[in-house]
């Protein structure tokens, strides 16, 4: 595999961060798979560590075109890490392929899944 191929793998997933009403929002775009999960885990792990205290994070998957079992595992792992610190992770997953994966697999990890960013921001804490 040459360096151009490796570069393409790393650009298959983009993560941008923002703040909205006391929440840190990580907006993901691209594919979450075996090749991109290590970078995603590191980025979200750093985000939780940098957040301090009780992290309040929304992961917006609206621009994600593909997510496999490795990706789902990474999202569940971030959820567990935040919960251990007394924090919350919410997912924004509009209707589509990624939402279908969540519906089929039905993860039983109390993942809070919302249709829109606005829904995730305005829902009362559980």
Automatic annotation (TrEMBL):
<dbReference type="InterPro" id="IPR003658">
    <property type="entry name" value="Anti-sigma_ant"/>
</dbReference>
<dbReference type="InterPro" id="IPR002645">
    <property type="entry name" value="STAS_dom"/>
</dbReference>
<dbReference type="Pfam" id="PF01740">
    <property type="entry name" value="STAS"/>
</dbReference>
<dbReference type="InterPro" id="IPR036513">
    <property type="entry name" value="STAS_dom_sf"/>
</dbReference>
<dbReference type="GO" id="GO:0043856">
    <property type="term" value="F:anti-sigma factor antagonist activity"/>
</dbReference>
<feature type="domain" description="STAS">
    <location>
        <begin position="13"/>
        <end position="124"/>
    </location>
</feature>
<protein>
    <recommendedName>
        <fullName>Anti-sigma factor antagonist</fullName>
    </recommendedName>
</protein>
<comment type="similarity">
    <text>Belongs to the anti-sigma-factor antagonist family.</text>
</comment>
